[in-house]
What we know:
Layout: E1 4-10, H1 17-29, E2 34-39, H2 54-65, E3 71-74, H3 86-96, E4 101-107, H4 108-113, H5 120-126, E5 129-133, H6 142-148, E6 156-159, H7 168-176, H8 187-196
Parallel strand pairs: 1-2, 1-4, 2-3, 4-5, 5-6
Amino acid sequence: MPETIGIYGGTFDPPHLGHLILAAEAQAQLGLDRLLWVLTPQPPHKSGQPVTPLTHRLEMLRRAIAGTPGFELSTIEMQRSGPHYSIETLEGLRLQYPDADFVLLVGGDSLRDLPTWRRPADILAACRSLGVMRRPGDSFEPALLEQSLPGITEKLRFVDAPQLEISSSTIRSRIAEGGHYRYYLQPDVYEYIEQHRLYR
């Protein structure tokens, strides 16, 4: 049987417990043999927004996923110049894993916007399924999605996970304001942020 590989992309600025819980639930519920955490240097939809230097995000992500069986860090998007589009990442991963079945993990908001991504039909064709990790308040219309991307609804697999209202932007704001944030993160990630005084 081909290996089933989940692909979880993001800026992870910083990686937090919400990311880890969703990823672990996706791994278990979707039967993923491995889950690649694809660190994005500068995603197209966040152009112009400040992003923490890549070296810091890389080390925080390494610390966050260390010791979890099946979790692996992928630097594929760091090996080429931006902007970084999902379809190009999928094509690059296909060269690395020619026989694997890919499951692209997306949030509910990303799923709604998928028709606006670069070459969305090719993204759909490159994946066995889309693992949808929904947050509170996410909404989308399956019929509208199907109209834009025929065949998408049969590829949707929803991940049932605790709905934690944790976001990287909230954590960054809390740190900047001197608020509490320690227990939203892995201890090693918290220590790294404190050591390097990030997000101040």
